[in-house]
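Researcher: Good morning. I'm working through a list of sequences from a screen, and I'd like to move beyond sequence-only analysis. For each chain I'm collecting a predicted structure so we can compare shapes side by side. This is the next one on the list. No need for commentary yet; just the structure.
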Amino acid sequence: MGNLARSATLGLDAFEGNPLEMRPNQTEEDLQIIIRAVYKQVLGNEHLMEEQRLESAEALLRDDDITVRQFVRIIAQSNLYKSLFFHSSSPYRFIELNFKHLLGRAPQSQQEIQDHVQIYYEQGYDAEIDSYIDSEEYILNFGEYIVPYPRNIRSQVGLNNESFNRMFSLLRGSPTSDRNNSAQLITSVASNMATPIEPLAIGNGANYDNTGKRFKITYSSSNDFARAQKVSKQQITVSFDCMSKAFQNIHEVGGKILSITEAL
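Model: Good morning. Structure tokens for this chain:
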């Protein structure tokens, strides 16, 4: 076993968050460790069938024609990633997972989520993925050859303690995957509330229960819709279970969410 293979043992466990870097003149064994680690991180611990592997992209990485960062981009923009996390998820869950998979952290604010919702609706899917991988944050933390990993399970400069709690809630331990298509952090991020740390989940990895709560959503309307309604700012109150659908309805009419607060 090569030096990289020995040092990468913990790196394959996303819950440990140990950096794994591809180095020049790696052996095939070392390369496979890198490839498996990228799949594990970007696909959210999803079990990958042999026929699902992106063999052409793997070959480019093996021949040094692309970097690890470019390999990450190819996977995240692939039909496989779309089928797992885009087509079956709400926009908020999709963005929540993009933060986890590509930046190794949870979203820190409602504004971050709204910015990425806007990127997707105005520029499209590939631009939304590029916005993480081409960001200064990605380059400073991972560069071209480090496999993204969960950064918030360790202290990080510039990130608050709540980021740790949110990332812990998204991780839920190594045995879980990200196939749950319900957003896990809508309440805590949108309402700026603390995220409770719960025992590791068994099964689908759901983290906490807010189903009994109701939330007031304030949003601005699109110009055409606002003229028809004679008002530019509107509010609706919905249960937690209906929040994702409400967000979709607002964005479908060109609205922008301004704030979300718990209804008393």
